[in-house]
Write a structure and sequence with these properties.
This protein is α/β, with parallel strands linked by helices. It has one domain: Rossmann fold (3-Layer(aba) Sandwich), CATH 3.40.50.720. It has 8 helices and 7 strands, in the order βαβαβαβαβαβαααβ. Strands 3-2-1-4-5-6-7 form a 7-stranded parallel beta sheet, sandwiched between helices. Helix 5 links the parallel strand 5 and strand 6. Helix 4 runs parallel beside helix 5.
């Protein structure tokens, strides 16, 4: 392990928020280690970070599998450097009536958006406590504060990840590990929103949807906070978004 390097591990480095967070930390000199279930989808992000002068590594990993999570963290810590910042950014926003929801899909959403967060954050926290420092950030949603109609599975998972973050913050804060939960509420500037919700995407010109780069700035802000003024929960939403 190269102790001169600082690593940010982003679980769920998609084309929007997760990728933007990786790029933001790479700009600050951090090695961006990014994961998705398919490594091929990570290559454009890795190439972009490297082209900008940063260092990045992509990993195919299923965050629901304990053995894969353990191998991922072990490999990064051994071969690249200490994980100083960890971001859990897996979402599973699939609406469905509670009358039609299946046990299989409900469980899968919980596995992706909550259980995977426990597995990966625990593995990273075990490393951080030995060094007495680190940042653990969870991407949440308004669903973690209140459940909307047709979003029972997603709300259950997001309530769970928020509770996990609260518990970890109380336990690990005294050990110099900053744990925070970021509520992201509103449409994000993505190809999916552009192609499927043109009326919503039209709000972009009025700053009515979230810019992934601006979301990422807030993750860096949390990581850089002095410990005498740590934030646990940060709420991000466009000025037009209803509470």
């Amino acid at each position: 392990m190269n102790n001169d390097k600082k690593v940010v591990l982003v679980i769920g480095a998609g084309d929007a928020t997760g990728g933007a967070i990786a790029k933001r930390f790479a700009r600050e000199g951090y090695v961006a280690c990014v994961t998705r279930r398919s490594a091929d989808k990570l290559q454009p992000l890795v190439d972009e970070i490297r082209a900008a002068g940063g260092e990045a590594h992509g990993f195919a990993s299923d965050a629901r599998k304990e053995e894969e999570v353990a191998a991922l963290v072990e490999g990064i810590e051994r071969d690249i450097g200490p994980i100083e910042a960890f971001v859990f950014n897996i979402g599973a926003n699939v609406p469905c009536s509670i009358l039609d929801e299946t046990a299989r899909k409900y469980f899968k959403i919980w596995e992706m958006a909550c259980f995977a967060g426990f597995l990966s954050a625990q593995a990273v926290a075990r490393r951080m406590v030995t060094r007495g420092r680190g940042t653990i950030l969870f991407t949440g949603a308004t669903a973690g504060l209140r459940g909307a109609s047709h979003f029972a599975a997603f709300a259950g998972a997001k309530h769970g990840i928020r509770a996990l973050a609260q518990s970890m913050a109380r336990e690990l804060g005294p050990r110099n590990i900053h744990v925070a939960h970021v509520v992201v509420d509103g449409a994000i500037d993505t190809v999916f929103i552009r192609d499927n919700f043109p009326d919503l995407y039209a709000r972009k010109d009025q700053d009515g949807i979230l810019d992934p780069a601006h979301i990422a700035d807030n993750y860096w802000f949390l990581h850089a906070q002095p410990r005498d003024a740590w934030t646990f929960e940060l709420d991000l939403r466009p000025w037009t978004e209803k509470w």
